[in-house]
Structures are given as structure tokens and as C-alpha cells.
């Protein structure tokens, strides 16, 4: 994909996560095995995450030359903590279930054989609550956590789509398909022509430094 196609694809992914958040019913995710990239972003959009002890979460997109594009940069810092989100996203670090539980990404961890029953038990408990009150409480909590969600997701999608015009994105995803180590080839973010127009290049201080270099 190029930037235009990536924007459409990313928009579809974001639409799924927004739909989960906007459902009036609380959503329970039951997760086992690898739940990476878009999988983690979908889990983040759910109200509760029950995971088996073999589950692994993560945002490894940086290892492919891109970044999360389905809401990960917006929701992960709010679900856990900015410092943890920064480490997990910038390093692409995998997050075992126990670590995800301690960080608040997961609500409960159970043995694999108990996962379906645990998730269904939580859903059953929620179903016994007053539905309109649940919907109102869910709406109020989501608004309190992230009142600027719409603008933030649009900002993430714009950056994510632009990365599909970089050499690193092409070589990173090719390396993934060929099961080999990805070695970045782009120049520094502040000197690459491909970075023109991106946020760190449009800030007043960055423009002044670039004009000085070009002079």
C-alpha cells in the first residue's frame, strides 16, 4: 500500500475500534495466544480484557517501519501509563499476560482452559445490571478518559498513512514477510526529505533550524 491506500485501510481499522467503544453495552474481550498490533488495539477498545496465561500483547509496528494506526497511540497511554506505552510502542516490546495485568491493560488472567468461562461469567454479571445506566456510565467514563478521542485518532491515522511513503516501511514489511531482521535505511527524522510536512518538521524551531541548514 501507498499512503492513500493505507489511509483507507487504517480508517477501517479505526472504525472497528470506535464501534466497540460506542456500543451502549460493555464489551468483554477474551484473549489467548498472540494478540499483537491490531489485536491489541481492538482489545484496548473493549471495556474489559480477560486473558489466558499464555496471551501476549504488544504494538510491534515499529519493527516494520511504521507505528500503531488503529488507535494504539491514543488508547494505550490511557489504559496503562504514558511511560509504559512509550516503551512498548517505541521498542515494540512484547507484553506477557502477567505484565499486562500488572499494567492495567488486562483485567484478569486465568488458565487457558478457564478463559471462556471467566469471560462469560463477567459478561453475565454485566448483563444483570440496568442497561441504560450501564450505557450512560460507559459513555461518561470514555468521555472522561479521552474527550479528544476523535481528533487524536485522526492525527494518528494521518501519521500512520504517511509512513507508507517511506523506504523503511517497504523494507520493514518485506523483511517481515521474508522472516528476516529489519534494518532501517532512512536517514535521521530531521534531515530526511520524506519527513517534510510531518509535525516535528513543521514546528517553528524545526523550520528555523532547517532554513539555517539550507542557507
* N-to-C SSE string, H for helix and E for strand: HEEHEEHHEHEHHHHHH
Q: Compute the separation of the termini in Å.
A: 36 Å
Average pLDDT over all residues? 90
Number of helices: 11
Estimated helix fraction: 55-70%
Global geometry: globular
- Residue share in β-strands: 5-15%
Sheet having the most strands = 3 strands, parallel
Strand order of the largest sheet: 1-3-6
Q: Helix/strand-derived class?
A: mainly alpha
Total beta strand runs: 6
Q: Whole-number radius of gyration?
A: 19 Å
Poorly predicted runs are none
How is this structure best described in words?
With 215 residues, the protein is mainly alpha-helical. It is 56% helix and 9% strand. The chain is built from eleven helices and six strands. The strands form two sheets. The chain has a three-stranded parallel beta sheet, with helices on both faces. A three-stranded mixed beta sheet has the order 2-4-5. The longest helix has 20 residues, at 3-22. The two termini are 36 Å apart.
Question: Quick recap of the structure?
Answer:
The protein is mostly helical.
Secondary structure topology:
Elements lengths: L2 H20 L5 E4 L2 E3 L1 H7 L3 E5 L3 E3 L13 H8 L2 H10 L3 E2 H7 L4 E3 L4 H13 L3 H15 L3 H14 L4 H11 L21 H4 L1 H11 L1
Parallel strand pairs: 1-3, 2-4, 3-6
Antiparallel strand pairs: 4-5
Spell out the key features of this protein.
3-stranded mixed sheet; 215 residues; mainly alpha; 9% strand; globular; 56% helix; 11 helices
Amino acid at each position: 500500500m501507498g499512503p492513500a491506500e493505507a489511509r483507507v485501510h487504517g480508517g477501517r481499522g479505526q472504525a472497528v475500534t470506535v464501534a466497540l467503544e460506542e456500543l451502549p453495552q460493555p464489551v468483554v474481550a477474551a484473549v489467548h495466544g498472540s494478540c499483537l498490533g491490531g489485536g491489541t488495539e481492538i482489545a484496548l477498545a473493549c471495556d474489559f480484557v480477560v486473558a489466558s496465561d499464555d496471551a501476549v500483547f504488544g504494538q510491534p509496528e515499529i519493527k516494520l517501519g511504521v507505528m500503531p494506526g488503529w488507535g494504539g497511540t491514543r488508547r494505550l497511554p490511557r489504559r496503562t501509563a504514558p511511560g509504559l506505552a512509550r516503551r512498548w510502542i517505541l521498542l515494540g516490546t512484547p507484553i506477557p499476560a502477567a505484565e499486562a495485568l500488572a499494567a492495567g491493560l488486562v483485567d484478569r488472567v486465568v488458565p487457558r482452559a478457564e478463559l471462556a468461562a471467566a469471560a462469560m461469567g463477567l459478561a453475565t454479571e454485566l448483563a444483570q445490571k440496568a442497561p441504560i445506566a450501564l450505557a450512560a456510565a460507559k459513555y461518561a467514563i470514555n468521555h472522561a478518559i479521552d474527550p479528544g478521542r476523535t481528533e487524536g485518532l485522526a492525527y494518528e491515522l494521518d501519521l500512520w498513512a504517511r509512513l507508507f511513503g517511506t523506504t523503511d516501511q517497504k523494507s520493514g514489511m518485506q523483511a517481515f514477510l521474508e522472516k528476516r531482521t529489519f534494518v532501517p535505511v532512512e536517514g535521521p527524522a530531521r534531515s530526511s526529505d520524506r519527513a517534510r510536512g510531518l509535525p516535528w518538521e513543521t514546528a517553528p524551531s524545526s523550520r528555523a533550524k532547517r532554513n539555517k541548514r539550507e542557507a
